[in-house]
Amino acid sequence: MKHILSINQFKKDDLSKILERASWIEEQYKSGKIEKLLENKIIACIFFEPSTRTRLSFETAALKLGAQVISAENAIANTSAHKGETIEDTTRMLCSYADVVIIRHPEAGIFERAGKVANKPIINAGDGGNQHPTQAFLDLYTIKKHMGRLDDLNVAFGFDPKHSRTIRSLALLLSHFKNNHFTFVCPEALNPTPDFLEDLRNRGASFKLTDNLSRFKEYDVFYANRLQEERFENKKEFEKYRKSLVITKDLVQGSKTLILDPLPRIDEIETEVDYFPNALYFDQAQNGLYVRMAVLLYVLGL
Questions:
Q1: How far apart are CA 63 and CA 152, in angstroms?
Q2: CATH label of the domain that carries residue 146
Q3: Could you report the per-residue pLDDT of 96-131, keeping only the tens digit for each?
Q4: 248 annotated active-site
Q5: Which domain holds residue 15?
Q6: Is 176 a catalytic residue?
Q7: Count: domains in the chain
C-alpha cells in the first residue's frame, strides 16, 4: 500500500516509474485495448473543494481500468464534515468502503493527519494552497512528452506563485532534475512565500523573480495559473492584480515557448492563444487521464 500525500515523498526514480507507466497506458488507450486491472476495486473521490479536471479524470481513470466509483462533490456541505466530523474519522469510514481514497481539502497539510489513520491508499488531490502532487505528475509528463527531457530547462511560472499549489508542486518536482532554471513572474505582492523559496534553495534550485513578461520568448516552458481568488484574504487585492499579467496572442506570436496551464483559465491566457501549436493546456488536461490511471495502479502496487 502506498499513499500519495506530499510532493516531498517522491524521488526521481519514483517519478520515472509513474511517467513510464503513464506512457504505456496512453499507448493502450489510443489502441482501444486497456487492461481492466482494477476490476472489483472501488475508488472513492471525496472533494471538499470544487473540481472539474481532477475529480472527473480520476473517476474516468478508475472506470477505464474496470473499477467502480463512489464520490461526493461539495463534501464540506454534503458529508458529515458539515456536522463536525474530523478528517480522521472521515478517512477511517472511507477506507472501510473503498480500495483507494482520493480527497481534495481546503486545509493545507491535512493529509498528514489522514495518512496516519488510513489503512487503504490515500491520494492528495489538492490541499489548500499547499500541494497538488498528481497535477505535478501530469505536468512533468506533458513537458517530457513535448520537450523530450526534464532537465536543462528554462521554466517560467506565473502569475500567482504565492497561492498556487500547482506552481509550488511542479517547481519542487522539477528541482530533482539537473540544470533547470526557474523564473517566477508576478506582481511583487504575489511573490512566492519565503518558506517555498527556502525549500528551493535547499534543493539547489536556480531561480529569480520578475514582474514582467519581457523575456517570454526565452523560456522553454511557461506555466501559467490563474490568480487564486479563493486564497485572497482581500478581494480588492485580487481585482487589482487579476489582469495585470496576461499571455496574449501578440506575445506568443513567433515563439516556441510551450504554454501550460492546469486550468481553469480565467484571465491569464487570451482565448486567441488556443490556436497556437505551443498552447498545450488542453493536451495537458488529457494527459491527466493517463497519469491518473498510472497513479491508481502505483498506489495499489499493480
A1: 37
A2: 3.40.50.1370
A3: 999 999 999 999 999 999 999 999 999 999 998 899
A4: no
A5: 7-131+288-299
A6: no
A7: 2
